[in-house]
Amino acid sequence: MRRIGSNIRKQNADAKVNRPTRNIIRYSEQEAPRNDYPRRIVSPPRPKSCCTDENRDMVGKVQEIDGFKFCYKICRTCGHAVKFFFPAVESTSPAVKEYRQWKRYTVQ
Fold first, then answer.
1. CB of 33 within 8 A of CB of 72?
2. Measured between alpha carbons, how far is 81 from 45 in angstroms, rounded to an integer?
3. Of 84, 63, 76, 64, which Cα lies nearest the Cα of 35?
4. How far is residue 17 from each of residues 44, 93, 104, measured CA to CA in Å?
5. 3-state secondary structure the chain
6. Spatial CA neighbour of 44 closest among 24, 30, 56
7. Which tens digit of pLDDT belongs to each residue from 69-91?
8. Radius of gyration of the chain (CA)
9. Model's pTM, two decimal places?
């Protein structure tokens, strides 16, 4: 007799590292802007004129996935949220090096 769920493949450590990150921002016109970081951020779907870099606050801490650093930023005035990726600098991460090689190849 088989257990329920026994046909689900077990993921190894490499599969967990390479999986896409879950987006916690939900864009909605019906719901009011709300910050429930780290579970969910409710945001208006479009930025307004108040959404400048100086008017956005960083929420939580800087996270890194495969050598790419990002954080969530929310506008102080209207609540519009974005997932902000920091510019890539010289890194020793193999994922970043592989991405740069791939990008260099596609540009040529």
1. no
2. 9
3. 76
4. 31, 13, 24
5. CCCCCCCCCCCCHHHHHHCCCCCCEEECCCCCCEEECCCEEEECCCCCCCCCHHHEEEEEEEEEECCEEEEEEEECCCCCEEEEECCCCCCCCHHHHHHHHHHHHHHC
6. 30
7. 889 999 999 999 999 988 766 66
8. 18
9. 0.64
CA distance 51 to 81: 9
Tokens coding 67: 């050598």
Cα(69)–Cα(71) distance, rounded to whole angstroms?
A: 7
Most distant CA atoms of the chain, gap in Å: 62
User: Which two tokens mark 21?
Assistant: 């990150």
How far is C-alpha 25 from the geometric centre of its chain's CA atoms?
A: 9
List residues bridging with 53 in a β-sheet: none
Taking the C-alpha atoms of residue 61 and residue 72, their distance in angstroms, rounded to an integer, is 8
What is the CB neighbour count within 10 angstroms for residue 68? Answer: 16
